[in-house]
Amino acid sequence: MLKTNRKIILLSIVLFFFLFNTNLYSLVLQSKKQNIYDVKNPTNNFSNNNKFKYPIDSPLEYFIEFPENSRNEKKEEVQSSDTNNLNNYEFNDNELNDSEIVSEEDFINDNSSDDSLFSDFQETFWKNQGEIAIESRLFKNDHNSFSEDSGLSVFSRLETRYEKDSLKLVLRGFARIDQKDQDRDFLALEDAYVQLTFNLNKELKLSFGSKLFNWSTTEAFHPADVINSRNFDSDIEQLEKKGELFLSISTKIFDTYTSLYYFPHYESPEYPGKFSRAGYGYKLEKPVWVEGNSKEDIKQNPWGYQAGIEISKNIADSDFSFHIIYHMDRDRPIIESRINLSPLGATYRLIPHYFKVLQYGFTYQKVFNTFVLKCESAFRNYIEDDFEIQTVSGLKKQKDHGLTALGFEFPFAYENGQETFIFWETQYLWGTDGKKREELNVFQNDMMLGFRHAINDMMGKEIYGSLIFDMERHKELVYALKYTQRLSDIWKIKMGFRIYDAPEEPGSPVLGLQSLHEDNFIYFNLIRYF
User: Fold this and answer.
1) Residue 62 in this model has a pLDDT that exceeds 70
2) Which of 22, 227, 300, 320 has the fewest beta carbons under 10 Å from its own?
């Protein structure tokens, strides 16, 4: 009953915001049209044969065409009942110098506050957008009646933001309701924060709320990007994130950006359910947080002290960032196993334990003439590395280690306007060896080859493919292929497949991606933007 009520509530919220934003969006479009004028020929404004080009606040970034009259026209006569004083005025484009010419995009995105004819257009500070999608996926039949071999869900993401002068407000989140697998029902707040820029120093900013952080430069491996908790029932190389509660102060000194962070809350990750083909065949209980080396330091209260500092600098064609963060590591828990005996038999309780860690690392990206170099690295020093947990395979404790990822991106442009990007990346875990390395990370010594080909046509057709393979474990590969394109201004499709080829080794524990062996699936998503 609880699950049913939860679905009804989530679906009601999605539909309400969908209808609200659709109507609001139509009003914004109408408002924009009423405040955009053809200065050269006002009589053509809003006529059937005159189309304006202006960006729509949509992830699709589609455009409506601009008037076909070009700057090569020497003279145009302005005739309008609203501009009688300008009748018979001759407008000569050749009299304008480059500094006086304003592009259509700059005109529309101009945030200056003046009292001109177009000042009403500047008063629109709220921006609203979103998407709603039907997601379907079908797994290879595993001949297990307890597992779910298909999925059908409704996904929605909503975003609203306000920005004026020194104030910025952002609110964004998403929800997923699955008809087949109730454990996939998921409501996540991504961004909900306030940012204040002080007039005394335009580079001094105070932010607080909940936010998604991106501390990564690479496509598939992200050793430095550790702030946000993940949803592990998503693409393994690009997991969905949950917002992290934070308070930050940022400033710029000598072209160097410095940010101080405080994180008061331990946000729990989301794991696949017991019957999900994307999971491991068991259900995890609520997590516990380990803040010391004794049992008294284990707590279920998700509030505690976390802090960090990030320093970044842009040098010529390169970006460098260094960070130190003391926080609760939610990438790699130790799963405690407890056996409960009853007349019906023995049952396991599986409880994830998360540990405090001091991480320091960096990200680096440099653009060369023919390629882009990407690198990021992090070392994790666990504060409670002597605390042991009883697992299904014996006593385990956290192990200090480092991760380094290196990548290259090669862009290719063609005369027909199409583009191809080739990716090569590798990640290596260091600081320990043998089986301990394989237990610490799924990608302990892996390589990725990938490509993205953009047709760059009106429908935005794009193909993305990747191959990830383990360079230590025999035959552990992940194949992925994705195709996306628009159907219209507001409709889009996304389809593809994912193949896991990671057979277990006889007599060895299940490691890495072996638990996902042959959990292959195809998927198709129909997306509507508003």
Assistant:
1) no
2) 300
Handedness of CA 61, 65, 71, 77 (dihedral sign): negative
Phi-psi region of 237 (alpha: psi -120 to 50; beta: other; left: phi over 0): alpha
Residue with the two structure tokens 């043998």? 434
Residue 198's CB is within 10 A of a number of other CB atoms, namely: 12
How many Å apart are CA 259 and CA 311, to the nearest integer? 7
Instruction: Enter the tokens of residue 197.
Output: 């820029």
Report pLDDT digits (tens) over 488-518.
Answer: 999 999 999 999 999 988 777 788 888 899 9
Closest CA to 174 of 151, 195, 194, 153: 153
pLDDT at 362 over 90: yes
- Residue 227 gets the label, from left (phi > 0), alpha (psi -120 to 50) or beta, of alpha
Report the chain's terminal Cα–Cα distance, integer Å: 32
Q: What is the 3 state secondary structure string of 460-510?
A: CCEEEEEEEEECCCCCCEEEEEEEEEECCCCEEEEEEEEEEECCCCCCCCC
pLDDT of 217 higher than 50: yes
Contact 177, 153 (CB under 8 A): yes
146 contacts: CB under 8 Å, gap ≥ 6: 275
The residue ranking higher by pLDDT, 45 or 285, is 285
Tokens of 244: 């992290």
Secondary structure E strands in 343-400: 345-367, 372-382, 389-391, 394-396
Helix (H) or strand (E) holding 20: helix 2-34
